[in-house]
Amino acid sequence: MLGGVALWSLWWVWLAAALALGIFEVLAPGFIFLGFAIGAALVGLLLLTPLTPGFAALLAIFAVLSLIAWLVLRRFFRAPGGDARRVETDIND
Does a structural domain hold residue 87? Predict the structure, then answer.
């Protein structure tokens, strides 16, 4: 608690978490942390409004927004064909 206010209810904490997750995404590319970063940023922006959801509601909103962000990122940035390249023969043959 920070002066009677829980840290999870502060908008800047969520935006700082989004920034940290965005930095982790640069270090470990592959859209692993980017969906979580987008979800955290959207929750931070939500907390700038007069709405004050509880901790459980914030976690649920974060989870749903992160999942939606991950699905959108996967749809737009997926490799053409959607499959990994398959090697059937050895390059030395």
Answer: no
User: Considering the entire predicted model, what is its pTM?
Assistant: 0.78
Say whether 27 sits in a helix, a strand or coil.
Answer: helix
pLDDT tens, position by position, 49-60: 998 888 899 999
Spatial distance between the Cα atoms of 50 and 43, rounded to a whole number of angstroms: 13
Is residue 85 included in any domain, yes or no?
A: no
1 inside domain: no
Q: What is the dihedral of CA 21, 26, 28, 30, to 10 degrees?
A: 90
Domain that holds residue 16: 7-77
- Domains in the chain: how many in total? 1
Within 13 Å of residue 45, how many CA atoms lie on the same side as its CB? 8
